[in-house]
Write a structure and sequence with these properties.
The complex is a heterodimer. By secondary structure, chain A is α/β, with parallel strands linked by helices. Chain A has seven helices and seven strands; from the N terminus they run αααβαβαββαβαββ. Chain B is an alpha+beta fold. Chain B has a single domain, classed as N-terminal domain of TfIIb (Single Sheet), CATH 2.20.25. Chain B has a four-stranded antiparallel sheet. Chain B starts with a helix and ends in an 8-residue tail after the last strand. The chains are: A alpha/beta, B alpha+beta. Chains A and B meet through strand 2 and strand 3 of A and helix 2 and strand 4 of B. Strand 3 of chain A pairs parallel with strand 4 of chain B, so a sheet runs across the interface. The complex binds zinc ion.
Amino acid sequence: MSRPEDTLPPDLFYNDVESRKYTTSSRIRSIQASMTNRALELLDLQHSSFILDVGCGSGLSGEILTNTEEVDGGPHTWVGMDISSSMLSQALERDVEGDMLLADIGQGVPFRPGSFDAAISISAIQWLCNAESTSEEDAPDRRLKRFFDGLYASLKRGGKAVCQFYPKNAAQRSMISSAAIKAGFGAGILEDDPETKNVKLYLVLTVGGGDITG
Amino acid sequence: MKLLTLNFLTCARKTCKSTAAAFPLHPKDAELEQIEIDMNPLFVKNMLPRLEWEAMKTLTQELGLPALPAETPAPEELTTEDGEASQVLKDLHVLLMETSVASGKLVCGNCGHEYAVKEGIANFLLPSHMV
Ligand SMILES: [Zn+2]
């Protein structure tokens, strides 16, 4: 199967048909749910938090954030960013509780410093490695820098981000993690089911200088 | 888009990044809607110190909503003596969590760029030359 990242940019790839497929396929939904739950487990949030969902799509992860039980530290309030208006239309149809921006994460993260307790991203950030045009501003390294710099600033001190992603190869994997480190994050990559075709990679990012009030 | 979110959203342009005038964005031709959601006292309490109260006051004034108190409410104002949710908390919940901009524009006070809001979703896509 060809990688969607290699065929079209995400706003064109996730058109109405693909967006509906993505949102209604029970297989995709269950994989998405398990990755979201894993990301939440890695975030280890102790109380109701304000969370940025990077590449929120049709709000499948967001619904899980909204429905997190009090004993598990929830419920959370989230704001999502996505470049696909078709995906966001799906989210509207499903009446999700989070707010959403139609936005390209490669252009930056438009929130004031220290806005969020945490960020989550499922199957999105590898798209940053695609050049959106031939313009120098749209080169992958510039897009990665704007995203990670913006994400870093938008998280509060002591905040955390977990990004599940599908790098195309080792070069892309290290390009992504080094961009995160350059932005100031403490970064590590966690591999679930390594060496299998179900391998899942989570980029776990921390912002130093946690404050006492949490 | 909840008023809570508007208290954190800034202009996306790089040139506006560190200018005070790029926050808060100013609503224009805004249609508001009320969307009922469950009250989460702990969340409101946690967010309180992170709010820019001056921006909250500006926003409510520009939207023609009732004036807010001069200062951010103190955490102890959120509960009554019996430990119940106080009126202050209920009002904050309605304002921050249930009041939304359904449509209109959000205007940057620095560069003048207008971000359109439709069905509650703000369009932050910038043409390349504006990034
Ligand atoms: Zn601006």
